[in-house]
Each structure stands twice: as structure tokens, then as C-alpha cells.
């Protein structure tokens, strides 16, 4: 699969997973330009710190695995808190930027290429696993959750931060329609992280992943329990993070994000 002028092109031997990998490889160049991806203020950084500590506690040298680490945004937050961090991603352009960012900031974070459904990590290796905006893209979440269970130490904790980007309620659909009309009329700027055509590719991928009808928190929680995780908790209070991010968006974008079903889910591997 190749990426040309913001378009993902694939031959007959390429499948959905290849399209997902190519999409995020294409997004790497502009990924850190988007609020909601990179962090632009200390207010947002501290909001993320509090959310992470709420569910995972302080780092204290514990080993953390950041899955689909992208350019390393979450890895740096975990490093801030004293975790020993390894980031895994399967898009080489993302890894290149993550390594460069860590080097420029003097961070000792390891970034490696790997598939989140087959990490090749050793059994019982990590104290915590964290993911942000990964689960909605999974082709086989049952396989992924079993893999994450395997590499967690007994008693280790998984933290998922994600959202339902499909089944919008009436208010969210209305706001998005207004926003699209204003963008079309040149009255609002589109997301700088999306090159021409990438939004359509995103929608196409979203329609074919496992959670094509929406990654609802209760569905993910049920799959985690089926995989053997314990103490599964859903936290829908991400307002502090969203409030900090909202300063970088126009009114309609901030309103739309606030209406979405976004959440954090924590779960533990049995001891």
C-alpha cells in the first residue's frame, strides 16, 4: 500500500489492517498539529496527569507499555509521572517522529515497531498498559485483549482512553452539520491534521472495523471481562481534559467534542 497526495492506495492483496497502517503513516506528518493529539498547554498536561494517576497511580519506576504510541504523546505523559515507558506502533513514520521528539526532550523512552494484536513482548512483563484512541481501530479486539492480558504482570492494570466516533446523538449530529456548512463556506478552518481526502479514508476505515457501529464503553468493558480482566471500571468524566483542549478549537468543534461519548476504562489482570 502506498500513500500519495494524502490518498491511501492499495492493491488487491491489501486488506483493512493494511489500510489502517497506511492511514496512520500518512497522518504522521501532521499528527502533532491537531489539538486532541499533541498537548499544547501545561493545563492540559496536568489534566492528563491527574487522569492517569487516578487510574494507574504514580509511576515509581514501574514498567509501562504505550500501545499505538504514535508520536509519543502519552509515552511522555507516562514518563513525566515516573514510569519506565516502552511505546509500540506499527507505522514507521510515527516511530521516527516519536524517537526524534524523545531525543530532543532528553527522554529515555524506547519506541519499537509492533502490532498491538501480536506485540511479541514476553509474558508478564508490564505493570501497566495504556492506550489512547486505539480500541476503535481494532479489527479483532478479543485477540488484542488476550494479548494485552498475556504481557501484563499479575495484578497489572490496563487503561483505555477512547470514544464512540460513530453513533452520534441528535445534538452532536446537528453541531457537526453546522460546522461542515461553515467550513464549506470558508467561515471555519478545517482540522489542520487532515490532508485533503484523509477524512474520507478515515470514514471508510471506521465503517469496517469491529466497532463500526460505535465503540461504546459498555461493549468494551464486556469484552474485557470475557478476556478475564477484573475490576473493570468505566470513567466518563474527562471534562478537565476536554476543557483544556477546547481553547484550541473553534466553538463548534469544542461543543461537538464535549457531546461525544468519550471515556477511560481501567481493568486489572488477576493476581
Distance from N terminus to C terminus (CA atoms, Å) equals 42 Å
Overall 3D shape: globular
Q: Which CATH top level class fits?
A: Alpha Beta
Known CATH architecture? 3-Layer(aba) Sandwich
Low-confidence stretches: 1-13
Please give the radius of gyration in angstroms. Answer: 18 Å
Based on secondary structure, the structural category is alpha/beta
What share of the residues does DSSP label as strand, in percent?
15-25%
Say which CATH homologous superfamily is assigned: Vaccinia Virus protein VP39
Estimated helix fraction:
40-55%
Order the strands across the largest sheet as they lie in space.
Answer: 5-4-3-6-7-9-8
Please tally the β strands and state the result: 9
Summarize the biggest pleated sheet: 7 strands, mixed
Q: For the residues shown, what is the average pLDDT?
A: 89
At the third CATH level, what is the topology name?
Rossmann fold
Give the domain tally. Answer: 1
Discrete helix count:
10
Order of helices and strands: EEHHEHEHEEHEHHHEHHE
What does this structure look like?
- This protein has 271 residues and is an alpha/beta fold.
- Strands 5-4-3-6-7-9-8 form a seven-stranded mixed sheet, sandwiched between helices. It has a two-stranded antiparallel ribbon with strand order 1-2.
- Helix 1 runs antiparallel to helix 7.
- It starts with a strand and ends with a strand.
- It has one domain: Vaccinia Virus protein VP39 (Rossmann fold, 3-Layer(aba) Sandwich), CATH 3.40.50.
- Strand 6, helix 5 and strand 7 form a beta-alpha-beta unit.
